[in-house]
Automatic annotation (TrEMBL), chain A:
It holds the Pfam family FdsD. It comes from the Bacteria. InterPro entries: Formate_DH_dsu (IPR021074). It comes from Aquabacter spiritensis. This is Formate dehydrogenase delta subunit.
From TrEMBL, chain B:
InterPro entries: 2Fe-2S_ferredoxin-like_sf (IPR036010), 2Fe-2S_ferredoxin-type (IPR001041), 4Fe4S_Fe-S-bd (IPR017896), 4Fe4S_Fe_S_CS (IPR017900), Asp_de-COase-like_dom_sf (IPR009010), Formate_Dh-H_N (IPR041924), Formate_DH_asu (IPR006478), MoPterin_dinucl-bd_dom (IPR006657). Keywords: 2Fe-2S, 4Fe-4S, Iron, Iron-sulfur, Metal-binding, Oxidoreductase, Repeat. Residues 96-135 form the 4Fe-4S His(Cys)3-ligated-type domain. This is Formate dehydrogenase alpha subunit. Residues 18-96 form the 2Fe-2S ferredoxin-type domain. The lineage of its organism: Bacteria, Pseudomonadati, Pseudomonadota, Alphaproteobacteria, Hyphomicrobiales. Residues 158-189, 201-230 form the 4Fe-4S ferredoxin-type domain. GO terms for molecular function: 2 iron, 2 sulfur cluster binding; 4 iron, 4 sulfur cluster binding; formate dehydrogenase (NAD+) activity; metal ion binding; molybdopterin cofactor binding; NADH dehydrogenase activity.
Length: 76, 945
């Protein structure tokens, strides 16, 4: 895994999604999204949102689906 | 102030609930059945002379000084070994008894050096006291006969001496080592007149099995075993009760003083966590507080390549504040943050997070719990509804089966380890799940019934396999689950764990553990009576740390092992106040009392009292701060009492992050490794120099009391207040008790806590509020805090940290008894006598394959970095696994650990790193480079006249 922050965020999002993957699909998506909203600071969420906008390379299907519905980050 | 004298009742308290009535010297008293006559008399205020008895130990009956007469019985039985009977009539003082006692004392004294005036225990010696008590005024036997008076001293232990000539062979030390500490290091060697106490096989204390806990020293009634400080300083004249600042056990001590000099720390019998016991760290290793390396003046510098310049507090704080303001003006409000310390008090931690939220105006606050027990907080709050352990330490006395997972209590939590061993010697069963054969697996009179030596990183697989056995073999406590837990969730979980892929046989390919052992262990835990789980960082510090915590919580619920004494889920917390720092709102997503920052009502209550508007977005966690620093969006940091450079994983990334900061303020006792990258250094003060509270692993809030003035001029909370004020945010507290009052006003689980209550009760376990005014020793009685207990599915996902041809071994890290964490404190004490360097434990097969001999210098390399250290060949580790500690900055084991972390909390995966080990002839390039940087960075400019 490289040290680029975006790579790390993708990795973390996938890890979270993997945990929730054992739950039914809708719960897995909601669980992953809620976890990220609760624990990631706005700049991390902005970065991953930009990554999604740029194609979301490397994200697992659950992570991607969860992140596509992420609440927009308010301006500081 | 005077010296606190605790009453010695002579024998331990009886646990019987039945009372019996006895007449002692004409006075009738009621005591629990099984109480000794000696104790009953003392409870009535009547002290029977004694030498071999003390209430920390079972009665022994050897000195014959405590004889009494009992109506209707012949002879003069020993009062320490004779239990009271209902209606018994006892006389403790008659002519006959007086004569016998004088005779006994005379014999003792005739073989004792009479150098009382120059003896280190003068005034603190029970032999001296008893000579007075029995009225001994002359000794008829001369000193010409055979005696022990010229025997030498053993001074090998750095903290206490053993002066054989003064020994009265009362056996108290031997029994203390066995009963209290459980080490069995001492024996009485020789017979009759020739008998003397001896560590091991006539070894010196230092080379014996002795772990220097001090229990024997405390038990010794004479100067035979005595603290060296009593020779150097003299006897103490006043004392205050305080709390150890090392580990999460939270032992209570009397700090015994002469003026403002600390003579010794004596464990306090009333301490609810330690019950009068201690370990080498809290008992003896406090010398760091007065070590010459302590920095007592604030310092600043514009760049880390310049030497430090000593300045006034005002100048240092004004400079720090102006830098933080400049950075925020340039890079935005969220470009700065800070780290609270799990070694500082609750009040200090609370103030630092208040400064960050109130004065910086963001939530970029985190704490070292991030790198140890954050998965505990997450896992237990999801399943049970509270981020804390379920029991008090006393609970272990009622456990029948003890399951220890990824913890090494005899080294990491020594006093609790001793209490656990005591219960195991009484017959409780033991299951150990650990890649290493930790001491507990086989120690004197304790042997694990099952040791599951799993491969590092496979906890979830093992714990889920235990659940598989429990469910598929019908061992679930269905009544408990139906009553207390969500039944539908349980059924999903039961179906999940029952799948054949979770069976012990199927997971063996990951765990390496014999399925028969897993099945046996599961049956024992589920059916052996009260089952208690204790776990440590071997559970949390993994990419699936939070998942393992949930798997453990599931296991306890399924077997009904929650909500009463003797059972429960117990995280063994590392640092003294790691529970407290989490409680105090040190995490970037939550306010004190574990309430999410997005909750408007909670925010409003803080906003009203603090007079600010709070940011409603979670802040950065420690590893995210380093990432953001490297990215250039995070530029300033205030770090109180925490050495992130040495303690956090992937040192090179941390150093890159710290190096990118424009303003790093470090507040600490020493110029620690993090301070190599700092621009402002604020001197910290030790736990002896301030008031406050710590909260231990059992949620017990305990007082820390100031026994001397801060050597650096201010307590840490005062320095934080000054910094807040310079940032334009006024904080106004005259004493830490006022900070606690504010915490109590704002935190529902703390509303009943105050210094007055702590002074009255000694300590209290949160929740302490209207519902539980006396606190809560055991949680989830009658129901879970979250309502219904929640079963969560725990799929095993192998870590991405895998061995391969380049890195074929797995490194796991840990700690040892005599050193503490990054060692900043213990390395500056005589504890280095036991552990002067970090070493690498390697299995004989792996060593042989690589041509490594015991004691050779080896290079330990992972994809993150490499370091060199000495190898120790040991069968404690399995083939394929190597182990080291992280106490010494020269080794910097964390150069090797990687950036992988727990999926939920980013708690680093310290416990699994793929490595290679090869013979080496010197330090690695990183070690050399870092050594140069440290030397350069620690320069302090000569003060200009
Ligand atoms: S110091 Fe502790 S371990 Fe050592 S001999 Fe005394 S009681 Fe035993
Ligand atoms: S060393 Fe002290 S405690 Fe031990 S037997 Fe001698 S006098 Fe008693
Ligand atoms: S067990 Fe922990 S709290 Fe107790 S004395 Fe040792 S280090 Fe201190
Ligand atoms: S105190 Fe009872 S025999 Fe020694």
């Amino acid at each position: 895994m490289s040290h680029s922050t975006t790579d790390r965020l993708v990795y973390m999002a996938n890890q979270i999604a993997t945990f929730f993957a054992s739950q039914p699909h809708a719960a897995a998506i909601a669980g992953t999204r809620e976890h990220i909203e609760k624990f990631w600071d706005p700049r991390m969420r902005t970065k991953i949102a930009e990554h999604i906008a740029a194609g979301g390379e490397g994200l697992s299907p659950i992570a991607r689906e969860a992140l596509e519905g992420l609440a927009p980050v308010k301006a500081a | 102030m005077s010296l606190i004298h605790e009453i010695d009742y002579g024998t331990p308290v009886s646990k019987s609930e039945k009372l019996v009535s006895v007449v002692i010297d004409g006075m009738t008293i009621k005591v629990p059945e099984g109480t000794s006559i000696m104790r009953a008399a003392m409870e009535a205020g009547n002290q029977i002379p004694k030498l071999c008895a003390t209430d920390m130990l079972e009665a022994f009956g050897s000195c014959r000084l405590c004889l009494v007469e009992i109506e209707g019985r012949a002879g003069t039985p020993a009062s320490c070994t004779t239990p009271v009977m209902d209606g018994m009539v006892v006389k403790t003082q008659t002519e006959r008894l007086k004569q016998i006692r004088k005779g006994v004392m005379e014999l003792y004294i005739s073989d004792h050096p009479l150098d009382c005036l120059t003896c280190s225990a003068n005034g603190d010696c029970e032999l001296q006291d008893m000579a007075g008590v029995v009225g001994l005024r002359e000794v008829r036997y001369g000193y010409e006969g055979e005696n022990h008076i010229k025997m030498g001293k053993d001074e090998s232990n750095p903290y206490f001496t053993y002066e054989k000539s003064k020994c009265i062979v009362c056996n108290r030390c031997v029994r203390a080592c066995e009963e209290v500490q459980g080490t069995f290091a001492l024996t009485i060697s020789g017979r009759g007149f020739g008998s003397r106490v001896s560590p091991g096989m006539d070894e010196s204390f230092l080379s014996s099995e002795c772990v220097s806990c001090g229990a024997c020293v405390q038990a010794c009634p004479t100067a035979t075993l005595n603290e060296k400080a009593m020779f150097d300083i003299g006897t103490p004249e006043h004392s205050l009760v305080t709390t150890c600042a090392y580990c999460g056990v939270g032992c209570t001590f009397k700090a015994e003083m002469r003026g403002d000099e600390l003579v010794r720390m004596v464990p306090y019998k009333d301490g609810k966590a330690n019950r009068g016991h201690s370990c080498v760290k809290g008992r003896f290793a406090y010398g760091y507080a007065t070590h010459k390396d302590r920095i007592l003046k604030p310092m600043i510098r514009a760049s880390i390549h310049e030497p430090w310049k000593e300045v006034s507090y005002e100048e240092a704080i004004t400079y720090a504040a102006s830098e933080f303001k400049r950075i925020q003006a340039t890079y935005g409000r969220r470009s700065v943050g800070g780290i609270t310390s799990s070694r500082c008090t609750n009040e200090e931690t609370y103030l630092v997070q208040k400064l960050i939220r109130g004065a910086f105006g963001n939530n970029n606050v985190d704490t070292c719990a991030r790198v140890c027990h954050s998965p505990t907080g997450y896992g237990l709050s999801q399943t049970y509804g509270t981020s804390a352990g379920t029991q008090d330490f006393d609970s272990v006395e009622d456990s029948d089966v003890i399951l220890v997972i990824g913890a090494n209590p005899t080294d990491g939590h020594p006093v609790f380890g001793s209490r656990m061993k005591k219960r195991l010697r009484e017959g409780a069963k033991l299951i150990v799940v650990d890649p290493r054969k930790i001491d507990l697996v086989r120690t004197p009179h304790v042997a694990a019934d099952y040791h599951l030596p799993l491969r590092p990183g496979t906890n979830v697989a093992i714990v889920t396999a235990l659940a598989h056995v429990i469910v598929t073999e019908g061992l679930v406590n269905e009544q408990f689950v139906r009553e207390r837990c969500d039944w539908a969730e349980f059924q999903d979980w039961a179906a999940f764990v029952s799948d054949a892929r979770h069976s012990p046989e199927a997971v063996q390919k990951y765990t390496g553990v014999d399925p028969a052992l897993v099945r046996g262990a599961a049956r024992l835990y589920a059916t052996g009576g009260n089952g208690a789980i204790y776990y440590g960082l071997g559970v949390t510090e993994h990419s699936q740390g939070s998942t393992t915590v949930m798997a453990i919580a599931n296991l306890a619920m399924a077997t009904g092992n929650v909500g009463r004494r003797g059972v429960g889920v117990n995280p063994l917390r590392g640092q003294n106040n790691v529970q407290g720092s989490c409680d105090m709102g040190s995490f970037p997503h939550e306010l004190p009392g574990y309430r999410h920052i997005s909750d408007a009502a909670t925010r409003a209550s803080f906003e009203a009292l603090w007079g600010v508007t709070l940011d409603d977005e979670p802040g950065l966690r420690i590893p995210n701060m380093f990432d953001a620093a490297v990215d250039g969006t995070f530029k300033g940091m205030y770090v109180q009492g925490e050495d992130i450079l040495q303690s956090d994983p992937d040192t090179k990334h941390v150093s890159a992050g710290l190096g990118a900061l424009e303003c790093l303020v470090v507040q600490d006792l020493f110029l620690n490794e993090t301070a190599n990258y700092a621009h402002v250094f604020l001197p910290g003060c030790s736990f002896l120099e301030k008031d406050g509270t710590f909260t231990n692993a059992e949620r017990r809030i305990q007082r820390v009391r100031k026994v001397m003035a801060p050597k650096n001029g201010y307590a840490d909370w005062e320095v934080t207040m000054m910094l807040a004020e310079a940032l334009g945010y006024k904080m106004d507290y005259a004493h830490p008790s006022e900070i606690m009052d504010e915490i109590a006003r704002l935190t529902p689980t703390f509303t009943g806590v105050s210094y007055t209550k702590l002074d009255e009760m000694g300590s209290v376990q949160w929740p302490c509020n209207e519902k539980a005014p006396e606190g809560t020793p055991i949680m989830h009685i009658g129901g879970f805090v979250r309502g219904k207990g929640k079963f969560i599915l725990t799929e095993y996902v192998p870590t991405d940290e895998r061995t391969g041809p380049r890195f074929p071994l797995l490194l796991t890290t840990g700690r040892i008894l005599s050193q503490y964490n990054v060692g900043a404190q213990t390395r500056r004490t005589a504890n280095v006598a036991w552990h002067a360097e970090d070493v690498l434990e390697i299995h004989p097969h792996d060593a042989e394959n690589r041509g490594i001999r015991d004691g050779d210098f080896v290079r330990l390399e992972s994809r993150a970095g490499s370091t060199s250290l000495r190898a120790v060949i040991s069968e404690r580790v399995s083939p394929g696994v190597v182990y080291t500690t992280f106490h010494h900055p020269v080794t910097q084991a964390n150069v090797v650990t990687t950036e992988f972390s727990d999926w939920a909390t980013n708690c680093p995966e310290y416990k699994v790193t793929a490595v290679q080990v090869a013979p080496s002839n010197g330090p690695s390039a990183w070690q050399e480079e870092y050594e140069k940087l440290s030397r350069e960075s620690r320069r302090i400019a000569e003060a200009a006249e």
